[in-house]
UniProtKB/TrEMBL annotation:
Name of the protein: MBL fold metallo-hydrolase
Assigned keywords, A-Z: Hydrolase
PANTHER family: L-ASCORBATE-6-PHOSPHATE LACTONASE ULAG-RELATED, UPF0173 METAL-DEPENDENT HYDROLASE MJ1163-RELATED
Limits of the Metallo-beta-lactamase domain: 47-238
InterPro entries: Metallo-B-lactamas, RibonucZ/Hydroxyglut_hydro, UPF0173_UPF0282_UlaG_hydrolase
Annotated function: Counteracts the endogenous Pycsar antiviral defense system. Phosphodiesterase that enables metal-dependent hydrolysis of host cyclic nucleotide Pycsar defense signals such as cCMP and cUMP.
Top-level division of the source organism's lineage: Bacteria
Length: 279
């Protein structure tokens, strides 16, 4: 038989799956779209993180969804201004197809989001350490991070942010692009994070010389998740570009050697995960 078996959904089928997935009160649904693009569904809301869905010959695989197909976004959260995180083409089409969506981005990058065609009334400028509410019982705390270094604008607003989202006790963290350090650990530890999504592609002088800014290594990501007391770690930023990647098998091996009780999940593009809280 030459019939091809397709396990993961794409396009309209994937969007329909998001719509019809029933999330238990003590759970959360997560979809991976590649790089650091994630979708989460919780408390009746669908949130897109760093949607990078433009066609590009540099991509290792085609986008699981086309931007103009996305009608179901309630919130779109941007971690920083690099084009594989703040993708103007994706944001423009998504904003048209999902007119209800609100956009959250670091305050210094608000104009970039406006330039992508999103009205200012739809943008929430985020500032490190200043918590805000999305809906009843859902709070967001932006956390400053170092993408090779901490960078701020003239008003002291950080360029690079991760986001801690508290869904009525289930605490989810998307790190964005970040290097592990004591300042980040100190900022995260009080939140009692349950699910931590972290980059593992690392950093080195060769990539920095070519203006490819670094992130946590697989060791640093695992160490950070353990230090902040996370129940589960989801690795990101290892699957998209051949020039800026890491073998995730090293990450798994390190976890099994040093943190065998720390749960993890590697998601393929288009894959859904349903998680029930352990707390």
């Amino acid at each position: 038989m030459n019939e091809k078996i397709v396990i993961r959904k794409t396009g309209k089928q994937l969007l329909e799956q998001m719509d019809t997935t029933e999330v238990p009160q003590d759970g959360i649904a997560i979809w991976q779209l590649g790089q650091e693009s994630l979708v989460i569904k919780k408390s009746g809301f669908i949130i897109y993180f760093d949607p990078y869905l433009s066609a590009s010959p540099a991509r290792s695989f085609a986008p699981p969804i086309q931007p103009e197909e996305i009608y179901n976004a309630d919130y779109v959260i941007i971690t920083h201004h690099h084009s594989d995180h703040l993708d103007p083409l994706t944001l423009k089409d998504l904003a048209i197809r999902s007119p209800q969506a609100m956009f959250i981005c670091p305050a210094p990058h608000m104009e970039r989001v406006v330039d992508a065609g999103i009205g200012r009334e739809r943008i929430i400028p985020a500032q490190a350490g200043i918590k805000f509410e999305l809906a009843s019982g859902i709070t967001v705390t932006p956390v400053a991070c170092k993408h090779e270094q901490y960078i701020t604008d003239a008003d002291g607003n950080h360029f690079f942010l991760g986001y801690v989202i508290d869904f009525n006790g289930l605490v989810f963290y998307h790190a964005g692009d970040a290097i592990a350090d004591q300042e980040l650990e100190d900022a995260l530890k009080p939140h009692q994070i349950e699910i931590a999504c972290m980059p593992i592609n690392g950093h080195d002088w060769r990539r920095l010389r070519n203006h490819i800014y670094g992130n946590m290594t697989f060791r640093e990501a695992a160490d950070m998740a353990a230090e902040i007391g996370a129940e589960m770690i989801i690795p990101m930023h290892y699957d998209m570009f051949a020039s800026n990647t890491e073998n995730p098998a090293y990450f798994v091996d390190y976890l099994l050697r040093y943190y065998p009780m720390l749960k993890f999940k590697m998601l393929a593009p288009g894959e859904r995960m349903l998680y029930l809280t352990e707390r």
